[in-house]
Amino acid sequence: MKRLTLLMVPALALAAALAVLNGCGGGGNVNEVKIGANLEKSGKSGEWGQDSERGITLAFEEINAKPEQKIKLRAIFEDNKSEAGASKNAMKKLVTQDGVIAVIGCVGSNRTIAAADVAKEEKVPLMTHASTNVTIVKNGGEYVSRICFDDNFQGAVMARFARRSLKAATAVSIVAKGNSYSEGLCESFKKVFTDEGGKIVEELAYQEGTKDFKTLVTQIKQINPAVIWVPGYHNEVALIIKQAREGGLQAPFLGADGWDNPELFTLCGPAIKGNFLSNHFDPGDPNPKVQEFVKKFKARFNNITPTAMGALAYDAAYAMADAASRAKALTPEGMKDAINSIKDLHGVCGTITMSPEREVVKEAVVLETEETQFKYKETIKP
Ligand code: PHE
């Protein structure tokens, strides 16, 4: 009897330790949890995935270095290569092989829509730091949340800016066909621009990957609108604007967060001057919280200035740490409840409080493009 008890104690202790390990994602350390990051580290949006990785890395290093931090966070990065199919596979690997208890990602809405299907099926929370398409969170259900504003807000911000600040009466909109982000933004801009008394005089389209926009430029020149709404990614937007200016088209172009990439300036050159976009973050914002973040980021990563992507990923990593510290269990289920109840978390891109719809309410900034950088114009509240 006595012998049995003695034997049982270590056996039970071992089982309990293993359970903790499993609950923590089997990290090899009882106090460690694994958080996945499904990111565009290569391919068309590679710059954004890399900036996101920097944001998460910096945040987890800071969090783990705090003496009072009991739960250490380990990020597992997967590259979705900027493709929806690969994003699904990356998500599956994180969930079924790497044993993560929650995932941050992705960058582009098309990839996040694909990853959200897996999150829903596998019941592992996916928190997008940057994907703004409206349908993602709505269709994703309780395992999918977002810590940035969505495209209904972003489209409205720029439609109001066009009407009220630029006094534009007419607009041509140009959609990136098949890109859910661009399609959603064309819809939301159209609705608010029209409600505000403006008129969309033509709706044009392009395929991503296009390099020659001369025909498109000729069409717009004939229509001669007051502004041109082009809510695509920087890759094509830079070429559209460059060729428009070469073709003598002078009207300002307006866009959204998808322009926020240093490549916008290198691909377009000085012709980029004098256009406008909405964004989540301005690295030049004098707010001490922003300046401290920019300083730390540059010191850690070779003097690189963070884009909104790096800043949002940094905030998402802090949101994961907050959720882990309050979770009833360090399991996907426990994390889901803790994420969905995040409240008053002050990040560098504003405050995160999850609504019952797992969305946040945040301000947007309107930026103007100068020849080599963005310049702050105004802040627009929801
Ligand atoms: N909002 C974009 C999308 O959903 C991604 C993005 C966010 C790009 C922030 C740049 C900055 O596809």
Describe the structure.
This protein has 382 residues and is α/β, with parallel strands linked by helices. The protein has 2 domains: 6-149 and 287-362, Response regulator (Rossmann fold, 3-Layer(aba) Sandwich), CATH 3.40.50; 151-279, Rossmann fold, CATH 3.40.50. 46% of the residues lie in helices and 18% in strands. It is built from 13 helices and 14 strands. The protein has helices at 2-23, 46-65, 84-97, 109-122, 135-140, 151-165, 180-195, 214-223, 234-246, 263-268, 288-300, 308-326, 332-339; strands at 32-39, 72-79, 102-105, 126-128, 144-146, 170-176, 199-206, 227-229, 253-255, 276-279, 345-347, 350-352, 364-369, 374-380. Strands 7-6-8-9-10-13-14 form a 7-stranded mixed β-sheet, sandwiched between helices. The chain has a 5-stranded parallel β-sheet with strand order 2-1-3-4-5, sandwiched between helices. It has a two-stranded antiparallel ribbon with strand order 11-12. β4, α5 and β5 (144-146) form a beta-alpha-beta unit. The longest helix is centred in the N-terminal third of the chain and has 22 residues, at 2-23. The model is unreliable at 1-29 (pLDDT under 50). Phenylalanine (PHE) binds at residues 48, 107-109, 130-133, 181, 257-258, 260, 308-309.
